[in-house]
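Incident log, structure service

09:12 report received: a user says their structure output differs between two submissions of the same chain.
09:20 pulled the input from the user's history:
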Amino acid sequence: MVRIFTGLALCIALAGCAEHRDYLSAHYLDQYAEPGPRPEHFRECHGFSCAVVSRVSLAPAEWRRVRAMFTPPAKDAATERRRIAGAVALMQRLVGAQTGTSAHQWTHRNMMILPNLGDPTQLDCIDEAVNTWTYMTMMERDGLFRFHHVASLAFAGLPTDPNPRNAAVLQERGGAYYVLDPSLVDAGATVPVLPLAAWLDTWPPVMSRYDGAGLPRS
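09:34 re-ran on a clean worker, output below:
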């Protein structure tokens, strides 16, 4: 994600929490995520570093809108990633209407998060990563994924990279890892999909190099 002014200490602490060489960790999931989220009852983090937790309940008709994003079923993994990115954006809009988190304070000039100043409606990289994991976990448990499963969170930053960041991750079954990072766009916009290696590399990422499925553009 980006440079963070509030909650920076937590992002820095994560630099020592690598579980394996792919830079994935369950650290923040263990702290903040709900183990068994369901559309009718799940937890939403906001306020920076999950300082505020809202309980969200989607109506059956709202969850049907999410399921409709996957109809007909995708025929390949790239198409499925595009649908997942769109479904996460839809979830942000549905949830934001309940929690008041629809308007984010990003500046895209340098892809940085501005100081929070105690505003509970704003999200940092930890909030975004945990919430995106929650949305995708509910989708996967509802049988909407054919080619992916939800992995732990990716982290990067420090000691050599000055931009601490966290994001949710999909793994193509038996294959590559892809990051979905809503912090790179406005709330409710289609979420960028990037190969994990690209997300870990130079920051901010050059998103124009990749299409909506995280594949290199020709």
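09:41 both user submissions now match this output. Likely a transient worker issue. Closing.
09:42 reviewer note: The mean pLDDT is 87. The chain has one domain: 8-209.
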